[in-house]
């Protein structure tokens, strides 16, 4: 299991910005525990994902691996999880492995054009992902690709798998009308909590990762997060710490800072989970995606000397499974020779710790999550741990961590302009706003 | 020139969170103008970059283009600018173009291992970038690659160009000791303002972009930002608006939201510029990197219903230079058929505007920057405009937008542990901190 060191959020280490043990008495851990135990929200179904049977996913994975390209159509939770699995576990994948993986998670015509210029659809397997089956962006790219396959005389059944609700929705209807391959997303598992469902696991299988390894890791940490008492349950503890650092110390922003290029998209996965789950009722914590050492040369200045808003979550890695010795050269140059004889992994680990200390010395709170190595097992742990922690943080704020009511208005306005029935008034509203938008500086 | 619409920061459109025209009377635009005019900071030298002669860069670019791979070693400003040029102007570059471009901007041993497994150093041209020549991360990767070339019997002069200060620093000394190819970074142009110097322009040439096109765009917007009066100078106006939205309305976070996958790394380039320049003295504005439509399914919820902290800068695109019609299929499915006959570019543009309106209806401020298309000319405009705007925003906060004192402590602690002379006390301090870090939750 990974380790969590919380020294640098405590007052005896970082001074007045920190917490004292008694602060945690404000937290009703029993209440959180009961919400989980009683499955007070049906969406807590994601907790059972580690127990799922993966044989169907493996079967489709095997088919997909026979193609040269794997094209995923999905947005939000349907893309961020798969991308994180791809980039964490198979870096530079498309430059030396097959099938090449493309994740189209936008409606940017330039990107689609570029992808279609590179891949041959005859040799491409497409995974369409939308729980509801009504996500406009995914529907559109699906429709365009459907037509392309048809124009090329390619069978939809052979070239496509639809990952969607097992019973409901447009995509499920199409699966049944056209007798297509499909994978189910449990009706109660919402997008941003779905990485360990077929949504993420199929991509894992496609790139040659055993999806059961992800689930084994998730299962282990899941067990550990079933304990009632805050000081024994790492998820209740971390969610409480971040909650308290905001309500008592005004720390609004959670920076996710793994010291590994591979985990950059894990940061982005976390940011969706955190922002959509907690940004509600004019409150909540806000995320910031990051990566070390790189962001020491980009964001660190603001964390140290900017607004007193940040809490940094470091992810440190014990074994990078690769290393380089720094050679004994340029002995006549002081600014270089001191590095000789050290190794690259020694340097990245030292910089991680040095950054933690530098923050600590200035009284800035941080938490360290230490993973032994980056593999499917520990990535599964991280996914599941932060999913549980995010839900619990929502419960502490008394918000529903599974909905996203704020995004509906934009969708409705788009429906209006695209001519969806019943949204005629939204179209009027859209056009009126456009008229009033007349202030230009250049 | 691009257009800037500021309707959605004004009270008559968004209500009480907005500004009124009189608020801008608080700004001493004459003072800002004079700082620029008198070059009160030597680092304002970046303003002259559009006038530079690019012949030397073009010459090196021509040499680099004869190789199969181009490996850039640099971190922070030395990497974010080049990456933004690469990804904005040549998406999926490495899958269909040569030379393949690799930007190693970390000391992650896994990444270096992966790169060296993919590229053949015999067919690789290396660009080492560090203004000071003393950046530890870059020094280390430079030393490792230097030794590799030597072991393979490859000439450093043939396979390498060093981009650094024209006179000073370790790298300049090595250039002169070993008679290497080099490109100069003006001594007064600091890293994060250097994208339009040889730092970024060489990468442009390597991928087949005429660097003069970037400079022409920059020059045009540079001229426009030389006017004294706030209402006529878009850079003074935007920096003032963002400053006022923070000091009068508590809007701390500037979201950079281009509606184009290609500009995702432009967002990240902006975030370094903004964070390092403004995060000082316990104040300043904070950035958030984003991309549309994707982040409508990730961050939008928090901007609409989370903390009242955000100002969103939209970058909208007029002509995507690619399009797809949404076919007339699935006529029996209401949730899809309404999309038929529209185009992908119509959808992305409608979603951009709908998101702006949705924010506006909830009283959330945003600014729209509209570019005709994504090419070198307009990318040059964006780079130069935000560089100027960032510097000016620093002047409004009365902070030096060109230094980054907050990051020194972490560097010193790393020097201590790596055994650099004169940092022995830092080593002690590091080890003492480590001892006190003993609180584990798991």
What do these coordinates show?
- 2 copies of one chain form a homodimer.
- In chain A, 46% of the residues lie in helices and 12% in strands.
- The first copy, chain A, is α/β, with parallel strands linked by helices and 442 residues long.
- Chain A has 3 domains: 3-36 and 216-397, Rossmann fold, CATH 3.40.50.10490; 47-209, Glucose-6-phosphate isomerase like protein, domain 1 (Rossmann fold, 3-Layer(aba) Sandwich); 411-436, no CATH class.
- In chain A, the strands form 2 sheets. Chain A has a 5-stranded mixed beta sheet, sandwiched between helices.
- In chain A, helix 13 links the parallel strand 7 (253-258) and strand 8.
- The model of chain A has no long low-confidence stretch (mean pLDDT 97).
- At the A-B interface, strand 1, helix 4, helix 5, helix 6 and helix 7 of A face strand 1, helix 4, helix 5, helix 6 and helix 7 of B.
Concise synopsis of the structure shown:
2 copies of one chain form a homodimer. Chain A has 3 domains: 216 residues, Rossmann fold; 163 residues, Rossmann fold, CATH 3.40.50; 26 residues, no CATH class.
């Amino acid at each position: 299991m990974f380790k969590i060191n919380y020294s640098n959020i405590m007052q005896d280490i970082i001074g007045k910005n920190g917490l004292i043990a008694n602060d945690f008495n404000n937290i009703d851990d029993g209440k959180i525990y009961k919400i989980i135990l009683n499955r007070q929200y049906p969406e807590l179904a994601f907790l059972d994902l580690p127990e799922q049977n993966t044989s169907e996913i493996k079967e489709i994975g095997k088919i997909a691996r026979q193609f040269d390209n794997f094209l995923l159509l999905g947005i939000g939770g349907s893309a961020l999880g798969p991308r994180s699995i791809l980039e964490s576990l198979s870096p530079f994948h498309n430059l030396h492995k097959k099938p090449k993986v493309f994740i189209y998670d936008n409606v940017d015509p330039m990107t689609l054009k570029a992808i279609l210029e590179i891949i041959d659809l005859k040799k491409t397997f497409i995974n369409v992902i939308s729980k509801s089956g009504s996500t406009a962006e995914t529907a559109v790219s699906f429709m365009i690709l459907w037509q392309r396959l048809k124009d090329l005389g390619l069978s939809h059944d052979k070239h496509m798998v639809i990952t969607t609700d097992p019973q409901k929705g447009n995509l499920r209807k199409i699966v049944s009308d056209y007798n297509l391959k499909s994978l189910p997303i449990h009706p109660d598992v919402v997008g941003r909590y779905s990485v360990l469902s077929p949504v993420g696991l199929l991509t894992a299988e496609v790139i040659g990762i055993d999806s059961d390894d992800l689930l084994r890791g998730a299962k282990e940490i899941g067990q550990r997060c079933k304990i009632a008492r805050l000081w024994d349950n790492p998820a209740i503890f971390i969610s409480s710490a971040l909650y308290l650092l905001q309500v008592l110390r005004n720390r609004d922003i959670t920076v996710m800072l793994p010291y590994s290029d591979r985990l950059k998209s894990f940061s982005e996965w976390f940011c969706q989970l955190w922002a959509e789950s907690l940004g509600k009722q004019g409150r909540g914590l806000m995320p910031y995606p990051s990566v070390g050492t790189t962001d020491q040369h980009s964001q660190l200045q603001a964390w140290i000397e900017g607004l007193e808003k940040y809490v940094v979550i470091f992810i440190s890695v014990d074994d990078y499974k690769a290393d380089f010795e720094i050679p004994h050269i340029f002995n006549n140059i002081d600014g270089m020779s001191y590095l000789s004889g050290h190794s690259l992994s020694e340097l990245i680990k030292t910089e991680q710790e040095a950054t933690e200390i530098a923050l600590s010395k200035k009284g800035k709170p941080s938490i360290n999550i230490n993973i032994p190595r980056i593999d499917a097992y520990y990535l599964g742990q991280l996914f599941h741990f932060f999913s549980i922690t995010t839900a619990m943080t929502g419960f502490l704020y008394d918000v529903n961590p599974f909905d996203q009511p704020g995004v509906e208005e934009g969708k409705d306005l788009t429906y209006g302009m695209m001519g969806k029935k019943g949204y005629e008034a939204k179209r009027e509203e859209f056009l009126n706003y456009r008229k009033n938008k007349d202030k230009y500086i250049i």
